[in-house]
Each structure stands twice: as structure tokens, then as C-alpha cells.
């Protein structure tokens, strides 16, 4: 990235801003945060938090090393750039739970060092592969005895309540979260809970009573203002107990209804024979050995088996996208267990994340962040063309726009998966055939190789995008 760009999502913090300059990430700090910076340096919290794996690599720059555009700042820090920025509404249940536990573990670690976090924004956490990392050093503040957890409500709305929506009601948080950006309020979640749900002491404390208090605060604004003025007291012991209680509860949560997934078991139960699966894997391995992409997009990644092959054969990082919640969670588990540079995210390819937030710039959409070196879309395009009635030409134009090189698998109509898709609907896809697919792909890219990988006629096309 050439030139300087202020990160549009960092405007909320008056103490500092994040800037992107020539591919590097800088954080400016204003004079008003002088005491906070002195505290962080005195306690060596930044270096220790980085070493402990809680905080993204962060270091302060001497003034002579500051970029010219930042000379008006009081302090300038540099962060190691996160490979791919993602948002909570793109995470699966397992990733959101991992992020919540990371936040709580960081709070507990800080509390032992007489420090705390000023907020509980889920957007302050990013992922490097399957590992969460905190990115906002300016959220670290000195702990004050008796201070109430200022970020409690935010933690519930952005971490706890979205997890409970899935754990208690079997409803994924993604669409709701994306629509509000600030998570799911306790009042909204409480309205959905059954009597049985409410019988849980944790649910009663952190959702039902929390929602009741929020309603009372609105109805009794004068009293609420007086309580805020006098302050609420939470002893260190009670603070520690609150954090550990939430941590233990969240660690036990699991998604309800996950066994009903359509594609979550596809990697183990599909129409490929062993030899066909091996041939497909060989195509991916050969492609990645040749291209060696710094970042690979794997569309329709399922549980990440092909991303793992790509990583073993030259890809430095893979970002996987899938619509199936169980598949995304399995992919996240694979990334954690195998320690892969693989980040699986939830994606509705027919309705990708848009630019949104303040002035539609606070959170960047999928296309704004799409900067991959290569893309693989295996057993994917027919879900858009036939499953979603999207024009073949537009689907291929979109796929080839995501990276300069890639693999796209064509799945013919007589393939078992397409036959199932067409079983209960009229076949209105007269132009969906191999010849037309090849012709359309040739308009946007040069086909460099094609390999038949199934008896039903599936073909993987390797392409190089035609630059205009």
C-alpha cells in the first residue's frame, strides 16, 4: 500500500490513531495519554504482553525514525501487520469463543500486574492463523482498587451474547452481528430465552438481570446518572471472580444444532473416489509449488484440507471462506491443532461483508480486503450459479478479480451434487455447460491448464488473469 491512510476504525480513541504507511502499521499517541504511556513503559507491560502472546508485536519508534506525516504526535509506535483483518461477524463460533477467552485471559494477566482494559471491543482482537491476538495497546490502563469493570456490558454484547445465541438457541450470530456491528444486546437476547434457559444461574446473572438493569437505567435516568457519579465498587477479589467465572462458563459453551450441518462432513463424505481425491490434491500441490502465493484465498474451504495441502506446498498463508458453520468450526480446530497459518471465516458469497459503520468506512467490506496472491475455488461456483441463480459470467468475473492466478473447478450438471440441487426445481440453466464455462473464463483470464478430476466430468481450470 503506497502513501498514508488513517485507519477509519480508529477514530473513537482520542488518545491515538492508527495509520497505514507503505504497508506498515503505525499508532500515534497524543500528549493527553502521557501518564498512560509512562505507566506502560514503567511496568514494561507492552514488551511482556507481546512476549506472553497476548498483544501483537509492538514497539516504540525513536523520533528520528518517525514517518514525516506523523511528526506532530507525542509518541509513535509500530505494530506488526496482521496478515488479514477479519471481524467478529465473520468468525465462526469456535473463533469467537477463542477470542472471548483470549480477552478474559489477558484481563486476568493484566490484573496480576495492577493493570486493566478500558473496554471490551471484540474488534480489538485479530487472528494470526488460529491464534487470537490483541491489537490495541491504548486499551491497557492502570487498575484502580474498587473500580468497576467498565467494559462488562460491551463484553456481554460483543462476545457473550452472540455465543449464547448459538449455544442456547442454535442460531448463528453472524448476520445479526453484522447488522448491528455492536453485537447483541442483553435485552434482545433475553427476549428470546425460554424459562429453561433462564434457570441457569449464569444466564440469569449475565443476561436476564443485566437486561433488567439496562431497562431500569433508561427508565430512571436521574438515578442512573447519580450512580455513575458516585461510582460502583468492585473489589479486586470480586473482579477476579467475575472474570474467572465468565471464562470457565464460556470455555464450556458449544454450539447447539451443529450436527444438522449440510456440508460440515463433506470432507469425509463426498462423491470423490480415493484416486479422484488424490488427483485433486495433486493439482493443488503442483499449483502452489509453482506460484508460492503469499496469501491464498480458499473459497468453499470446508474444514481446510485443501488449504493445508496448499500450505505444505508453498503458500505462506491461507484464508478460507465457507458458508457452513460446522465446516468453519472444524477448519478453526484444524488450524489450532495443526498450528497452521490458516484462518477460516464464515462467508455468504452471494452477500459478502460490505463497507459499513461510520460513513461506510469504519469496517471494510470483503472486496476492500481482497488482496490475495492466488485463489482456489473448488466445488464452489455451482453453488452460486445454480444454487443462487447468479449469472455465470458475473461469478467468473468476481472469482478472477480476487487474485491474479488461481484454480476454479467446474462441476457439470450430471455430477451427483448438482443433480441433488436440481432435483426439486426446474432446470433453467441451459447455458451451464463445460464449453460455455471455458468460453466465459477465457474472456477474463488465460487458461494455463485444465485437469479432469472425476468420472462425472469435473474439471479444474488453472488461470492467469488478463490485466487491462
SSE arrangement:
Blueprint: E1 4-6, E2 16-21, E3 24-29, H1 34-42, H2 45-51, E4 58-60, E5 75-79, H3 93-111, E6 115-117, E7 125-128, E8 131-134, E9 140-142, H4 152-169, H5 174-180, H6 186-190, H7 195-198, H8 201-219, H9 221-230, H10 236-252, H11 274-291, E10 296-299, H12 305-312, E11 318-322, H13 325-338, E12 342-346, H14 366-369, E13 374-377, H15 381-385, H16 392-401, E14 405-410, H17 416-422, H18 434-444, E15 445-452, E16 459-465
Parallel strand pairs: 10-11, 10-13, 11-12, 13-14
Antiparallel strand pairs: 1-2, 2-3, 3-5, 4-5, 6-9, 7-8, 14-16, 15-16
Helix pairs in contact: 3-4, 3-10, 11-12, 16-18
Summarize, please:
This protein has 468 residues and is an alpha/beta fold. It contains 18 helices and 16 strands.
The CATH level-2 architecture of the largest domain is identified as: 3-Layer(aba) Sandwich
Unreliable stretches, pLDDT < 50, 5 or more residues?
none
Mean pLDDT: 92
Main pleated-sheet profile: 7 strands, mixed
Number of strands: 16
- Rounded to the nearest angstrom, the distance between the terminal CA atoms is 20 Å
Q: Specify the structural class.
A: alpha/beta
In helices, the fraction of residues equals 40-55%
Sheet-strand content, in percent, reads 15-25%
Q: What's the CATH H-level homologous superfamily of the largest domain?
A: Vaccinia Virus protein VP39
Amino acid at each position: 500500500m503506497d502513501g498514508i491512510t488513517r485507519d477509519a476504525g480508529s477514530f473513537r480513541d482520542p488518545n491515538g490513531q492508527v495509520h497505514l504507511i507503505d504497508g506498515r502499521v503505525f499508532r500515534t499517541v497524543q500528549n493527553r495519554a502521557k501518564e498512560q504511556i509512562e505507566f506502560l513503559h514503567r511496568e514494561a507491560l507492552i514488551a511482556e504482553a507481546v512476549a506472553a502472546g497476548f498483544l501483537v508485536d509492538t514497539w516504540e519508534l525513536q523520533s528520528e525514525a518517525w514517518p514525516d506525516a506523523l511528526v506532530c504526535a507525542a509518541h509513535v509506535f509500530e505494530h506488526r501487520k496482521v496478515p488479514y483483518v477479519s471481524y467478529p461477524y465473520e468468525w465462526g463460533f469456535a473463533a469467537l469463543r477463542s477470542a472471548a477467552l483470549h480477552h478474559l485471559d489477558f484481563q486476568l494477566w493484566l490484573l496480576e500486574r495492577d493493570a486493566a482494559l478500558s473496554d471490551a471491543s471484540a474488534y480489538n482482537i485479530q487472528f494470526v492463523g488460529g491464534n487470537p491476538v490483541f491489537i490495541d495497546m491504548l486499551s491497557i490502563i492502570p487498575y484502580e482498587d474498587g473500580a468497576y469493570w467498565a467494559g462488562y456490558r460491551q463484553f456481554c454484547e460483543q462476545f457473550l451474547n452472540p455465543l449464547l445465541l448459538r449455544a442456547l438457541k442454535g442460531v448463528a450470530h453472524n448476520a445479526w452481528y453484522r447488522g448491528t456491528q455492536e453485537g447483541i444486546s442483553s435485552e434482545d437476547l433475553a427476549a428470546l430465552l425460554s424459562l429453561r434457559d433462564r434457570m441457569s444461574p449464569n444466564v440469569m446473572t449475565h443476561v436476564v438481570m443485566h437486561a433488567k438493569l439496562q431497562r431500569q437505567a433508561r427508565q430512571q435516568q436521574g438515578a442512573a446518572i447519580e450512580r455513575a457519579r458516585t461510582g460502583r465498587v468492585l473489589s479486586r477479589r470480586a473482579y477476579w471472580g467475575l472474570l474467572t467465572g465468565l471464562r470457565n462458563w464460556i470455555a464450556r459453551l458449544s454450539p447447539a444444532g451443529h450436527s444438522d450441518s449440510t456440508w460440515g462432513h463433506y470432507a469425509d463424505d463426498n462423491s470423490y473416489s480415493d484416486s479422484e481425491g488424490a488427483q485433486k490434491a495433486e493439482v493443488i500441490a503442483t499449483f502452489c509449488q509453482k506460484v508460492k502465493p503469499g496469501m491464498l484465498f480458499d473459497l468453499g474451504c470446508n474444514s481446510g484440507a485443501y488449504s493445508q495441502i496448499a500450505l505444505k506446498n508453498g503458500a505462506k498463508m491461507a484464508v478460507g471462506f465457507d458458508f457452513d458453520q460446522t465446516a468453519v468450526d472444524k477448519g478453526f480446530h484444524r488450524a489450532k491443532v495443526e498450528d497452521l497459518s490458516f484462518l477460516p471465516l464464515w462467508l455468504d458469497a452471494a452477500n459478502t461483508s460490505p463497507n459499513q459503520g461510520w460513513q461506510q468506512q469504519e469496517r471494510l467490506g470483503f472486496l476492500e480486503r481482497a488482496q490475495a496472491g492466488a485463489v482456489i475455488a473448488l466445488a464452489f461456483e455451482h453453488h452460486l450459479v445454480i444454487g443462487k441463480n447468479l449469472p455465470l459470467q458475473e461469478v467468473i468475473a468476481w472469482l478472477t478479480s480476487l487474485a491474479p492466478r488461481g484454480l476454479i473447478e467446474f462441476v457439470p450438471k450430471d455430477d451427483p451434487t448438482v443433480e441433488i440441487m436440481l432435483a426439486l426445481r426446474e432446470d433453467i440453466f441451459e447455458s451451464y455447460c463445460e464449453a460455455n464455462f471455458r468460453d466465459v473464463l477465457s474472456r477474463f483470464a488465460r487458461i494455463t491448464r485444465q485437469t479432469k478430476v472425476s468420472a462425472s466430468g469435473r474439471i479444474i481450470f488453472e488461470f492467469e488473469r488478463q490485466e487491462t
